[in-house]
TrEMBL record:
Assigned protein family: Belongs to the UPF0215 family.
Signal sequence range: none
Protein name: UPF0215 protein GCM10009019_08230
Pfam family, one: Endo_dU
Superkingdom of origin: Archaea
Length: 180
C-alpha cells in the first residue's frame, strides 16, 4: 500500500450520558491529516448516524478506507456497517481487540426490548481473526476485498491500527475537555 493512502479511524470515549466519537484521518505512513468529532447517546441507537456525520463533516474524497473500533460503541449503540458503507462509498472495517462469543447474549440481558439493537448486531458481517505484529485482532468488513492487508498496512506496531488508535486518543482528550 502506498504511504500516502488515507484511512479515517473512528473511536469513542464516554462518561455520563453522551459519548464522544472522534474521527482521525491518518495516512499509511502514520501522518495525521485531520480530525472531526460528534456525540452519540450512551445506550442509544444513533452512533451510525454520527459516524456518517463525521465522514461528511470531513469532506475528504482522498480517504480510501473507514476503520471503526468495534461495532458497539457507547454501551451497545450498535453500528450498521452496511449502512455506513452505503453512505461513505468506501470499504468499512470494524476492528475489535478481544476474542468473544459475541454480544447477542449481553444485549438481551441489558435491554428490556433488545429488538432493533439485536437485529442490527445480528446483521453484521462475521468477524475474522487477523494476526498483526504477533497480536490477534478481529475484523468485520463491508466492501473490502483485502481486509487483512488493510489492517496490516495501517498497523505499524502492536495490534491497534493507527487511525483507530489516534481517534481513540483524540476522543479521550475531547471527552476530558468537555467534562472539565
Amino acid at each position: 500500500m502506498k504511504s500516502g493512502t488515507r484511512a479515517l479511524g473512528v473511536a469513542e470515549s464516554y462518561t455520563g450520558e453522551d459519548s464522544t466519537l472522534a474521527g482521525a484521518v491518518v495516512r499509511a505512513d502514520r501522518v495525521v491529516d485531520d480530525f472531526s468529532f460528534e456525540s452519540c447517546t450512551v445506550g442509544g441507537l444513533d452512533a451510525t448516524d454520527c459516524v456518517i456525520d463525521i465522514w461528511n463533516d470531513l469532506d475528504r474524497p482522498d480517504v480510501q478506507y473507514l476503520l471503526v473500533a468495534g461495532v458497539a460503541p457507547a454501551w451497545f449503540n450498535v453500528l450498521d456497517l452496511r449502512r455506513i458503507h452505503d453512505a461513505v462509498e468506501r470499504p468499512v472495517l470494524s476492528v475489535s481487540f478481544e476474542a468473544s462469543p459475541g454480544l447477542g447474549d449481553a444485549i438481551e440481558r441489558e435491554f428490556d426490548d433488545p429488538g432493533e439493537r439485536l437485529e442490527r448486531y445480528e446483521r453484521q458481517p462475521p468477524r475474522k481473526e487477523v494476526w498483526v505484529n504477533d497480536e490477534a485482532v478481529f475484523v468485520r468488513s463491508v466492501g473490502c476485498e483485502t481486509p487483512t492487508e488493510v489492517v496490516r498496512a495501517f498497523t505499524p506496531a502492536g495490534g491497534r491500527p493507527e487511525p483507530v488508535r489516534v481517534a481513540r486518543l483524540a476522543a479521550r482528550a475531547a471527552d476530558d475537555y468537555r467534562t472539565d
